[in-house]
Amino acid sequence: MKNILILSLLLVFGGSLSAQKVSNFTLKDVRNNKQVSLSDFSNAKGVVVIFTSNVCPYSVYYEGRITQLIAQYKDKGIQFLLINSHTENKESESEMANKIAAWGLDVPYLADKDQQVLDAFKARKSPEVFLLKNNGSFSIFYHGAIDNNPQVATDVKERYLKDNIEALLKGKPAIAGGRPTGCMIKR
């Protein structure tokens, strides 16, 4: 039984029982064509990195919930970064700029078209979430799904990302969440 528990923990934490450190990265924000680095948010208590898409139905299902989370935590020291690593035509930087303007969000929408940040995080789907904790450097506090029901917001019973943001802000340990459900990001 003990070996099964250890194996389960290794699978949840990607083979490591300690929080994975995240290296600084810099990407272009399509809203203003400026470079944005993770280190720009060194004063944030946490950073939510969401790998997303302009057109993936699962990403679209979550737009309202992401908007609500951003509004709820913007004044509590949590920074949100949206990253698009898809390379299809409808995911181009110009289409990304149109998408974020239509969405009306005031958070960076970062283009990762060479997929280096995608590879560093070992992300595979959109949407896929990484909540980073700031302890002088960033480490992954939570990785997984936003919640347990991508298609029907009113039927959500487990709010994995929200619960983990609350845990991070209260100094509590991370809470296990669900596996990301979404569109595969082609490499």
Short description:
By secondary structure, this protein is of the alpha+beta class. The chain has helices spanning 2-12, 57-61, 63-73, 93-103, 116-121, 160-169, and strands spanning 26-29, 34-37, 46-51, 78-84, 109-111, 125-126, 128-134, 138-144, 183-184.
Largest sheet: 7 strands, mixed
Radius of gyration over alpha carbons?
16 Å
Strand content of the residues, in percent?
A: 15-25%
Structural class based on helices, strands and sheet pairing: alpha+beta
Task: Please give the alpha-carbon distance between the first and last residues.
Answer: 38 Å
Spatial sequence of strands, sheet with the most strands: 2-1-5-4-3-7-8
Figure out the total of helices: 6
Low-confidence stretches: 1-18
Helix content: 25-40%
Based on Cα principal axes, name the global outline: globular
Describe the oligomeric state of these chains in a short phrase: single chain
Please tally the β strands and state the result.
9
The run of helices and strands is HEEEHHEHEHEEEHE
Mean pLDDT: 90
